[in-house]
């Protein structure tokens, strides 16, 4: 827009969890944007299951992003294939392309930096599932970040976790190579940026840094403003489903300090679902009065009309602040995180320390759970829960449960928790009113893999929880 040959805006669609409709939402958004006259490119950045081409009825794409990554194609324009929709081109994904051993970090960096040079009004990126760095970095390359959530606790929690990791990754990249980064790593260990980390509030993180580097915290507050994320609800059934989105919106505000809007709500729609099999996106043929088409149009309009100058100004002042920081004379040289989507002046960069890895919550071997009195078969689950033994809530992921107890991954138990005395509470994550809270005792904790095993205090309450978790699992499977 301002510079010829530069992308007008980048929109990324993420959400953490597979099957929530990221690909359908991003595809139909791209179609709607193109139908409204914008020149659009879509990028399939899903590493695990690239399938956007199938959505457009393209069975074997002639070129994919892999051609660009491997150097066979020198520009991204070359691999942006036409689609049946006028004004919409598609850069197809290739299975494992970004995750493969052949793809170097430079390849990925080249891809990220070329995104901004695509000749289009709008780039829509389907970032795919998961919270690995490739996914997060594509999400963070955008001006507008859309998180797709369906009104189920697992999806809401995954969406929340996804935003948290993306935000912290942004902080982290900004301080790589600085003493503050070392301090952070020393204070929290490698897991500072994990989903199940005990540092579950941005305010906690800020107060850790405030004493030492108050001006850094001031700059980070700019990043909160700049983050520009929006929730897109999908597969909504009832009006009450919107309430679930409002609840997670509140949680995001309270814990992450981010103001996110609910940009659209698409219902569970048979025409949307059938479009996957026909290879013609729903938004191409939908009846003009279709309420879901209206939501998509509204979303497209919101995106096209959003004035990004404020966001970009914040980004620039953040960069300026960071460059002039006196804390580390080497900072400038090492500070090449180059706000994705915004070119930074090229400069020689000495090798950087490797970034703090973001690991998915581990699912440890369940040997410990065998010691818990067995009431029924252990159920393998993935339910975000919070436990409280010392007056604060620790977010983790329940990986196994039966009526006797549960194993929870992603929580490194503080040494003050003793198995003989620790009595506490467990609740479903985000249940701030404690409707689902039940009494627990600490059975054991493993510092090595960051997991704890708890025992339920009340057998009746425990079996109700097991039943409801079992029901959720069955619903997700069916
Ligand atoms: N709004 C919707 N209405 C009906 N079915 C939907 C809707 N959104 C998603 N689905 C169903 O969910 C499946 C997964 O959607 P997809 O976009 O591939 O998810 P993701 O990209 O998040 O893994 C689709 O194949 C479709 O059957
Ligand atoms: Mg997908």
Question: How would you characterize this protein structure?
Answer:
The chain is α/β, with parallel strands linked by helices. It has two domains: 9-334, P-loop containing nucleotide triphosphate hydrolases (Rossmann fold); 366-477, predicted glycosyltransferase like domains (Thrombin, subunit H). Helices cover 39% and strands 19% of the residues. It contains 17 helices and 14 strands. The protein has helices spanning 22-35, 52-55, 65-69, 76-79, 105-115, 133-140, 153-175, 179-188, 202-210, 214-226, 240-256, 270-278, 282-285, 291-305, 309-324, 331-334, 459-477; strands at 9-14, 40-44, 80-82, 88-91, 122-126, 144-149, 229-236, 261-267, 379-388, 393-401, 405-409, 423-428, 438-446, 451-456. An eight-stranded mixed sheet has the order 3-4-2-5-1-6-7-8, with helices on both faces. A hairpin with a 4-residue loop joins strand 9 and strand 10. Helix 6 (133-140) packs across helix 7 and helix 7 (153-175) runs parallel beside helix 11. The longest helix is centred in the middle third of the chain and has 23 residues, at 153-175. It is globular. The termini are far apart. Adenosine-5'-diphosphate binds at residues 18-24, 129, 234-235, 266, 268-269, 272-273, 276. Magnesium ion (MG) binds next to helix 1.
Notable characteristics:
478 residues; alpha/beta; Rossmann fold; Thrombin, subunit H; 2 domains; eight-stranded mixed β-sheet; six-stranded antiparallel barrel; 17 helices; 39% helix; 19% strand; binds adenosine-5'-diphosphate; binds magnesium ion
